[in-house]
């Protein structure tokens, strides 16, 4: 039986979303055994947040460029930027999951008042946006990769894509603010 992704976008979106969230929550909550993955040297683990911040910054640029290209009707460029953004997100996620699986989530080293009133609210919004983005991103990515550009007008790709891109962009920006608080300011 051949998988026809074009006609199964909602179902594939659900499966990919569930698998992605299971991996993220499994890593963050310590459900993935540390021994399940090989341990890199400490220097590599220490570098991951900084690499991810750079990846996130590049993703902000590629998402913004993708939005601009879509608005100008340059759909081939839009597609290239959004696929690049998806690849950057995949790199980010693999590195993040690897680090969190091995060492757990980073602890906020700053003052408790900053932690309570700045860091945790920013982190909560970042996490919420990331969770909400996942099914939206899979949906528009699957629509965009299983159909020719001309056929996308008959789908919810543009409408859902506007929301997905805005939330995705904001999530990456807030992620870098969180990074700045964790690794640069404190």
From TrEMBL:
Keywords linked to the UniProt accession: Membrane, Transmembrane, Transmembrane helix
InterPro entries hit by this protein: DUF420
Pfam family for this entry, one: DUF420
Keyword Membrane in record: yes
The organism's place on the tree of life at top rank: Archaea
Transmembrane segments: 12-32, 44-68, 80-98, 118-142, 163-184
PANTHER family tied to this protein: DUF420 DOMAIN-CONTAINING PROTEIN, HYPOTHETICAL MEMBRANE SPANNING PROTEIN
Protein name (Swiss-Prot/TrEMBL): DUF420 domain-containing protein
Source species: Haloplanus rallus
């Amino acid at each position: 039986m051949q998988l026809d992704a074009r006609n199964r976008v909602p179902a594939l979106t659900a499966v990919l979303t569930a698998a992605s969230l299971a991996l993220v929550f499994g890593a963050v909550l310590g459900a993935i055994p540390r021994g399940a993955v090989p341990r890199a040297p400490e220097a590599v683990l220490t570098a991951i947040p900084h690499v991810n911040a750079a990846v996130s910054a590049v993703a902000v640029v590629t998402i913004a460029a993708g939005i601009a290209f879509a608005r100008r009707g340059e759909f081939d460029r839009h597609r290239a930027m959004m696929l690049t953004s998806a690849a950057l997100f995949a790199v980010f996620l693999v590195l993040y999951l690897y680090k969190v699986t091995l060492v757990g989530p980073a602890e906020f080293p700053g003052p408790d008042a900053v932690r309570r009133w700045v860091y945790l609210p920013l982190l909560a919004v970042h996490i919420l946006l990331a969770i909400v983005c996942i099914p939206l991103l899979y949906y528009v990515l699957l629509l965009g990769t299983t159909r020719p550009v001309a056929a996308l007008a008959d789908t919810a790709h543009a409408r859902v894509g506007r929301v997905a891109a805005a939330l995705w962009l904001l999530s990456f920006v807030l992620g870098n603010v969180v990074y700045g608080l964790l690794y640069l300011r404190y």
